[in-house]
Amino acid sequence: MKTKTILLSLLGLLILPVSAFAALATPIVTAVPATINANTYTLTIKVPIGSKVTVVGGPSDLAPVTDGAGKDKLDGVVKVMVGLAQEQKNVFSITAEKGGQFSSSVTVTINETSKTTTVKKGDVTPPAAPELDPIENPVSGTEYEITGSCEAEANIYADSSDGTRAGSSHANSNGIFSVSVKLEAGKTNRINVYAEDAAGNIGPSAQAVIQSDAPVQSQDNTVAEDSAKPTPFTDISGHWAEIYIDQIYEKGIANGKTENSFDPNANITRAELTKIALNASSQTVKT
């Protein structure tokens, strides 16, 4: 009951009239095929330059992607790889945010039809999503062994949220596996783990959310000054909900408005609230 009260208090802090937001141009999504036979699909989304794009939906939780961040060019075009549940319609809600302004959401439906559009000989049934063992966050290093179970003798792949390969392994005859992945220090790492059977069928993914508390190293290999801070947010110090914001960020329940700002008193979109509620339903906030 106490945990539920804390969650409701935090959500109450964030819930303010959506109409209070200034309007940002609605994202434009490049048209997708009527049917797709694939485990994943990359959405191409046009937004105002520098916007942060949030995509909610599908079988896996997705981290926001900011135009111009990391290896992405600052050109108003963001690519987001989404996982697809097999043989069903996958519905995604997409919103953009920039400088405190939020767009209306746009909905994209991707119809995955692997069974009805593909004729194969032999085994055509994809393996189930791997069952991952619990992760006791945070972890202290920059490497982690994800363990779990899946279809016997399946190949195991672990991809980061941007689609790059983080690790691979092979399940034993009992379906038990262990795959080593590298983590970004001082960040919440989201790793999508999926299995491929002997016939080449690829199943849906399960997501591991791993918070690394390893010190962030500067270019001269010294520990960054803010490495001990549990979150990167500079605007929550002294706020009454600071400890709860730290916890939901570490658990991957919510992200900030920007990389360094949570903006605890800001309004929230329906898509953001839905994502927080869904993430929180499978987490326990410490008191």
Radius of gyration: 20 Å
Q: List the uncertain runs.
A: 1-8, 15-22, 223-228
Strand content: 25-35%
* Tally of individual helices: 4
The shape, in one word, is: globular
Domain module count = 3
Could you say what the CATH topology of the largest domain is called?
Immunoglobulin-like
Tell me about the biggest sheet?
A: 6 strands, mixed
Structure description:
This protein has 287 residues and is α+β, with helices and mostly antiparallel strands. It has three domains: 1-20 and 231-287, no CATH class; 22-117, SoxY domain (Immunoglobulin-like), CATH 2.60.40; 131-211, Sandwich (Immunoglobulin-like), CATH 2.60.40. Helix content is 13%, strand content 31%. The chain is built from four helices and 16 strands. Strands 1, 4, 5, 7, 8 and 9 form a six-stranded mixed beta sheet that branches. A four-stranded antiparallel beta sheet has the order 13-12-15-16, with no helix packed on it. A three-stranded antiparallel beta sheet has the order 2-3-6, with no helix packed on it. The longest helix is centred in the first third of the chain and has 13 residues, at 2-14. The protein is globular, with a radius of gyration of 20 Å. It starts with a helix and ends in a 7-residue tail after the last helix. The model is unreliable at 1-8, 15-22 and 223-228 (pLDDT under 50).
